[in-house]
């Protein structure tokens, strides 16, 4: 299974097989690493994520295209949320294990859940968050209304709901679709998505260029057949620095 690397400038998305594709230097790219069955090298215009090769070239080409599109949307959500995150402390909750969770964690899970449910309603989602803390805090603390509204605004701005308006309950239900005990699996579940909304929330919260990742995979018969990792803070400088460090060593 080849590892494919993507850089996402504002105007296009490229997927390359068996190698690495780099764009001319720019201040900031979202970087995606993609795993998928098949060796096809493809070029995909932004806003059109259908993969231009015959279906037999990649068994799960529709799922791959959807995963890339969903993760790119999620990365854009992260960038937008981070711009405003530090202006309001109500954008952060603390889970029972003392780890922080933000508007972006909830928003990414809701957004990707909505996108995948729209395209693949029969494939369940396994993720990290649920809305229980949001609902209980919302009932006990009026400041949590701001948090829920912030999550809703971040998601509604980017989600495709087939022309129907979203409301806050839609977003909370989308979060719960990937929450704990949302799905009862057989001993050998056939197909399901796995999502880590933000791997590196503490890095996300630092307010600098620390790397964090949105990770999405499709598991079929116990094997990962599609995997997409989006890194909004990736820059081409990261590649140069690693090469320089290797040369110095």
UniProtKB/TrEMBL annotation:
InterPro entries reported for this sequence: Inositol_monoP_metal-BS (IPR020583), Inositol_monoP_superfamily (IPR051090), Inositol_monophosphatase-like (IPR000760)
Keyword Cytoplasm among record annotations: no
Necessary cofactors: Mg(2+)
GO terms of molecular function: metal ion binding; phosphatase activity
Binding site for Mg(2+): 128, 196, 198-199
Pfam families reported in the protein's UniProt record: Inositol_P
Keywords from the named record: Hydrolase, Magnesium, Metal-binding
Family under the similarity heading: Belongs to the inositol monophosphatase superfamily.
Protein's name in the database: 3'(2'),5'-bisphosphate nucleotidase
Annotated source species: Sorghum bicolor (Sorghum)
Organism phylogeny: Eukaryota, Viridiplantae, Streptophyta, Embryophyta, Tracheophyta
């Amino acid at each position: 299974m080849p590892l494919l690397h993507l850089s996402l400038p504002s105007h296009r998305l490229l997927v390359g097989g068996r190698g690495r594709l780099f764009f001319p230097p720019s201040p900031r790219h979202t970087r995606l690493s993609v795993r998928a069955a098949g060796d096809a090298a493809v070029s995909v215009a932004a806003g059109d994520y259908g993969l231009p090769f015959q279906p037999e070239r990649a068994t799960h080409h529709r799922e791959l295209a959807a995963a890339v599109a969903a993760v790119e949307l999620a990365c854009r959500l992260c960038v937008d949320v981070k711009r405003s995150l530090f202006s309001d402390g109500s954008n952060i909750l603390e889970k029972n294990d003392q780890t922080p969770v933000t508007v972006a964690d909830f928003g990414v899970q809701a957004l990707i859940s909505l996108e995948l449910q729209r395209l693949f309603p029969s494939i369940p989602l396994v993720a990290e968050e649920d809305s229980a803390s949001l609902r209980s805090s919302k009932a006990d603390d009026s400041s949590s209304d701001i948090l829920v509204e912030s999550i809703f605004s971040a998601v509604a701005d980017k989600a495709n709901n087939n022309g129907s308006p979203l409301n806050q309950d839609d977003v909370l239900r989308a979060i719960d679709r990937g929450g704990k005990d949302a799905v009862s699996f057989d001993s050998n579940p056939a197909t399901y998505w796995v999502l880590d909304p933000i791997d590196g929330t503490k890095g996300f919260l630092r307010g600098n260029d620390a790397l964090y990742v949105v990770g999405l995979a499709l598991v079929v018969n116990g094997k990962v057949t599609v995997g997409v990792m989006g890194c909004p803070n990736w820059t081409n400088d990261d590649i140069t620095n690693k090469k320089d460090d290797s040369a110095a060593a």
